[in-house]
Amino acid sequence: MIETIKAHIEEVKAFQTDTKEQLEAFRIKYLGSKGLLKDFFAEFKNVPNEQKKEFGQVINELKTSAEERVKAIQDALENKEEAKGIYGDTTRPGEAMNIGSRHPISIVKNQMIDIFSTIGFNVSEGPEIEDDWHNFTALNLPEYHPARDMQDTFFIQTNPDVLLRTHTSSVQVRYMENNKPPIRTISPGRVFRNEAVSSRSHCIFHQVEGLYIDKDVSFADLKQTLLYFTKEMFGKSKIRLRPSYFPFTEPSAEIDIYWGLKTETDYRITKGTGWLEIGGCGMVDPNVLKNCGINPDEHTGFAFGMGVERIAMLLYQIGDIRMFYENDVRFLEQFKSSI
Ligand code: DAH
In the UniProt record, does the keyword Cytoplasm occur (predicted)? Predict the structure, then answer.
């Protein structure tokens, strides 16, 4: 009996067909309610005790072999049919290729780069993982300076010298260390702050930093540059420079643009004032120039830093900053025509 079952196992393993009918006949023969397996299982009680173990093993093997064979042939037949469906009909219309779209942050960042490059600014980049010197100390923020608290920092592990940059101002330090004036550069990039996430702020966002160092650069040059930028970027020419404080600039100012209050999103983003702060700016502090190897008696300069998300939210009327990072294609696909 055991030998007969073993022969069946061989037969099952070798079974092949390319019709569904034959497969079904095969299934009924072995696995059907009146199939061979049923008979063999019924036979079990008549088998002498010492053979029961081996008998049990072989009928189980026959069962799983038959089941596996049926499944494998079934899958193969289905695949064949599917393949016929896809390739068989050459008159079928093609499937449209899904074209991706640029992320709104990239679109705005590229626009900003374009605008500044027309007035002679090049693009420079720096690392996102920074050291204390480039992110703080060189920018006139020595250890224990209270203004360090303005930017809640993510440190890497427990080493206080390695951190995720809190602003792109770190890139201006690197640029000044490695280049001689005249300098005209913008540094777009991603920055990180340990802040609560809400509809208006996020722990990851983007800035574009600007730096201009030459002989006799004045605050008037800064104003003109920012005005030129807002006209090009927004088609608006009303800006406001509010006196402010940054350790790396003196004097310092906050840059607001007048956007107006036409839509509900305008209200939300500008907190009902029509004005939106898009960044900070000022004349580079002589200490910073010195720290970076530039003689402040010979050269002066201005710097600014602007938030890309803020600008994108205004331009595209996006009421919640979190949408930029969710990667929801229904959101992203809306920017296809903006490239
Ligand atoms: N780094 C500042 C911030 O993230 C922005 C800033 C202000 C950059 C003034 C500058 C500047 O270059 O001059 O809040």
Answer: yes
Nearest CA to ligand 1 atom 8: 305
Per-residue pLDDT band for 87 (boundaries 50, 70, 90) equals low
Annotated binding site for Mg(2+): 250
Tokens representing residue 244 in the block: 């402010």
Strands 122-123 and 183-192: parallel
pLDDT tens, residue by residue, 132-164: 999 999 999 988 888 787 778 999 877 778 999
**3-state percent helix, strand, coil for the chain, nearest multiple of 5:** 50, 20, 30
**C-beta 169 within 6 A of ligand 1:** yes
Same domain as 139, residue 25: no
Range of the domain at 8: 2-87
Say yes or no: 54 and 114 in one domain: no
| Binding-site annotation, residues | 250
315 against 288, higher pLDDT: 288
Q: What percent of the chain has pLDDT over 90?
A: 56
Our answer on whether the CB atom of 280 is closer than 6 Å to any ligand 1 atom is yes
- Taking the centre of ligand 1 as the mean of its atom positions, its distance from the CA of residue 134, in whole angstroms, is 14
Statement to judge: residues 111 and 237 lie in one domain: yes
Which tokens belong to 34? 């009146």
Q: Which atom of ligand 1 is nearest to the CA of 280?
A: 7
Return d(Cα 160, Cα 142) in angstroms, integer: 13
In the prediction, which pLDDT does 190 show? 97
